[in-house]
Amino acid sequence: MAPDRSTTPAVTENGSRRWPVALAALAVTATLVIAAVLLRPEESAPTAAPQSPPSAPSLVVGDGRTVTLLSLGGSATDALLDRVAAGLGDATEQVERFWGTDWTREITVVATDSPAQFAGAAPGAPAEMAAVAVADSVDTDRRVASGQRIVLGPGAGRMSDAALRVVLTHELFHYAARADTAPDAPRWITEAVADYLARPAPDATTPPVPAPVALPADSDFESPEPGLSQAYDRAWLFARFVADRHGPAALRELYRRAAGRHMEAVDTVLRDVTGADPGQLLQRWRQWLAEPR
Ligand SMILES: [Zn+2]
């Protein structure tokens, strides 16, 4: 089943973002709130700041990664983060199976309850986004991304569990790959792989897409809706095609070489991992798309 694009991330997020001072102050209280929710779900959130320093939430996922959940919207976002806590383990394991385990050990998720909170936590991100993964700074030479966080928009609480799982996995892949992704990496590749990991495989219920006349390109992502959703769909289906025909390792190699810090030419990498030139590849992709599911 294809997820409703309105509940999946429409845009992502490269480059530097600044963590606002105001948010840092909010985050201290927010950590306390969600820690209380996680550890004592039957109790209401505290209304006054406790006297002792905050303790980290006791949530560990995947290969021993520590999760910090920041609830900026009180009970509304506490409930959303409970659902995030329940689904983040599976999302992490999905990312680790594909990408490996050599990525940051800390995962931070911020839930917002208003456009202003979302803008504060994810400056520059379009207000209508369900979620975005941002970082304060990225140093690909040292393989370090600072201030990384997944920020959930004020509408995220209305997502179904299935849609939330897609969004979390998609953003978590960006998060995991951030320190190894060139700031100017081809967007179609970063989105293709994130959606490959996050979305269910296409089946008989997946709406057909028009036979493509070209391989995916970043210019596809410059269109307003519905063109933007179609760009995501095309990139996703191309990633599916590569993984189906050549294996997930080939798709990972495409990402690491064509979107990684040494960014090789996409056509060269595609030829290496598929054995086909762009024209042949387009033909094979069209044939794959036309196969019954
Ligand atoms: Zn994305």
UniProtKB/TrEMBL annotation:
Highest rank taxon of the organism: Bacteria
Membrane spanning residue stretches: 20-39
Keyword terms of this UniProt record: Membrane, Transmembrane, Transmembrane helix
The protein, known as: Peptidase
Organism: [Mycobacterium] wendilense
